[in-house]
Amino acid sequence: MNRFVSIGFWIAFKAPDKTRPLTSHYAPSVFRPLSPLLLVLVLGWNARAPAEDWPTYRHDNRRSGITSESIRVPLTPVWTYISPAPLQTAWSGPAKWDAYANIRGLESMRNFDPALFVTAARDSVCFGSSVDDAVHCLDVKTGAEKWVFETDGPVRLPPSWHQDKLYFGSDDGYVYCLNASHGGLVWKRKPSGTETLLLSNGKLISHWPCRTGVLVQDDIAYFGASLLPWSKSYLCAVDAQTGSEEGPGRYRATLEHLTMQGSMLATETRLYLPQGRQRPEMFERATGRALGGFGGSGEGGVFAVVSRTGEFLHGQGQNHKAGGELRGFDADSQDYFITFAKATRIVVTEEIAYLNLGSELAGFARHRYVELAKHQTQLQARRKSIQEQLKKLGGQALESSGNQLKADLKPIDAELSTIPEQMAACFLWRTQADVPHDLILAGTTLFAGGDGRVAAFDTATGRKQWSAPVTGKAHGLAVANGHLFVSTDHGNIHCFRSDSNP
Q1: Contact predicate 234/113, CB 8 Å
Q2: What is the pTM assigned to this prediction?
Q3: Phi and psi at residue 292, to the nearest 5°
Q4: Pairing of strands 311-315, 303-306
Q5: CA 172 to chain centre
Q6: Residue 264: its pLDDT value, please?
Q7: Distance between CA 73 and CA 498 in Å, rounded?
Q8: Which of left, alpha, beta for 462 (phi over 0: left; psi -120 to 50: alpha)?
Q9: For the segment 340-391, what is each residue's pLDDT rounded down to a tens digit?
Q10: Chain centroid, CA 180 distance in Å
Q11: What count of Cα atoms within 13 Å lies in the side-chain half-sphere of residue 470?
């Protein structure tokens, strides 16, 4: 029996140390200055959530996609950044179809750089580019370019903003720290050292590119340098201010049989690294010691979230799974407890989780749902064990032994038959919404990205509140300081804001 619980809803060198002259590739639109942050009078004074930065990929190191900032809809387009050339992703897309399982519409398990994902803080919005091998900083209000910092390879993930510095990695094998205000280099480090370069997509890159991004926590910068599983990889923790490997909690660990790619995640004690086609791996944050992985061989995907209540959820784009799936594990023990079939994104709050199922959005009571899912998995394991015992006994079994095992199965089967209905009752709402590419939560509004559009939904009812056209597939969403940013696979960044947002 399948061990998964399937829930249907569910060669030119540049000068990398210099900033180049400011250029602009943005199309201005209607813009009105931000209103002051005020208290709103609604049957008494009610404080609104203040403006908040979006300082790293999917807002925080758990990659939650959640900000407490509220942004009122409808939204108005302000400006659009237009990439001067098509994006150059690290890997080509998925196979056109799975001939073995006769399934079409597969999703890529290595699609970690399909758009110019952004980070935003104060009056700046920043992104890395695979087009011109650079990090760009734009003015939030106008989209005008403030500065550009060039490297010698594609920058595939957005920089992390920490204490007025930006941290990012490049396919040239270096990790960089810049001054966020003007883009000047603070330090750079290459864990692989001097090497011959590799030709990839018409560019020379390192055999150990940094494709995990740089995660900063407790003033330590974490990153991986990796490409091929038959070559060594590096997992590094350096001083965020100096780039030094010296000191407690700093290290450069050499690892085997890994291909680290996609944004790294962290909790207080653990690091989590996606691997594309292979399963995600977990490490001790203080030492870099490997702690094992999640799932079996080939159960990969680059989307991952670590909830504050200890669930690790990952997936997106699997062989034999049209539309993909997300799987849930205990973040520390690595015990599997559920699969959400056809799911592409999930946002997990303390009480409610919101699930993007491709053509449907859903909200469910997460505590009860997870409790039922874990119990269902335990019952299925017991059922499988008894069935294997019966199979071993075969025709040589004593009648009493076989009868007892069959009797043991009956209450298990009876209880299992009731769980799907109990799990279905946990869903608070479902709504049709063909917006499968991204999902984030800002205050009490869900924003979701689809083909050629972005939409907003009320968290209490699932009702669609607003939508707007964008150019391409909306793979990256971010809300910061009164603005919504939408990054698409055409290389565009659309900026929206609310005229009524305080």
Answers
A1: no
A2: 0.86
A3: 100, 180
A4: antiparallel
A5: 23
A6: 96
A7: 6
A8: left
A9: 988 999 999 999 999 998 889 999 999 999 899 999 999 999 999 988 888 8
A10: 23
A11: 37
CB count in 10 Å sphere of residue 416: 15
Structure-token match 């990952």, residue found:
314
Nearest residue to 61 (alpha-carbon basis) of 295, 357, 268: 268
3-state secondary structure string, 109-174? CCCCCCCCCEEEECCEEEEEECCCCEEEEEECCCCCEEEEEECCCCCCCCCEEECCEEEEECCCCC
Element (H, E) at 315: strand 311-315
- DSSP-derived letter for residue 208 is S
Neighbours of 388 (CB within 10 A): 11
* ∠ Cα 38 44 48 (to 5°): 35
- Please count the other Cβ atoms lying within 10 Å of the Cβ belonging to residue 118: 26
Among 103, 124, 41, 56, smallest CA distance to 481 is for 124
Q: How far is CA 173 from CA 49, 114, 134, 211, in A?
A: 40, 20, 14, 9
Contacts of 21 (CB under 8 A, 6+ apart): none
Distance in angstroms (rounded) separating the CA atoms of residues 67 and 348 = 12
Cβ(212)–Cβ(264) under 8 Å?
yes
CA distance 175 to 63: 20
What is the tens place of the pLDDT at every residue in 184-215? Answer: 999 999 999 888 888 878 788 889 999 999 99
Find tokens 């006769």 and name the residue. Answer: 102
Whole-number Å distance between alpha carbons of 222 and 362: 34
How far apart are alpha carbons 78 and 90 in whole angstroms? 30
Q: Is the pLDDT of residue 16 over 50?
A: no
Q: Tell me if residue 224 falls in helix, strand or coil.
A: strand
What average pLDDT score do residues 140-147 get? 97
Q: Cβ(98)–Cβ(109) under 8 Å?
A: no
For the chain, what is the mean pLDDT? 85
Tokens of 437: 């590419």
Q: Does residue 399 sit in helix, strand or coil?
A: helix
Q: Which residue is listed with tokens 């942050």?
A: 37
Is the C-alpha dihedral spanning 480, 485, 491, 492 positive or negative?
A: negative
Closest by CA position to 25, among listed 183, 113, 131: 131
CA dist., res. 417 & res. 422, Å (int): 10
| Pair of tokens at residue 372 | 């039922």
In angstroms, rounded to a whole number, what is the distance separating the alpha carbons of residues 484 and 474? 12
The arithmetic mean of pLDDT across residues 146-167, rounded, is 97
Distance CA 362, CA 60 (A): 23
> What is the rounded distance in angstroms from the CA atom of residue 431 to the CA atom of residue 449?
15
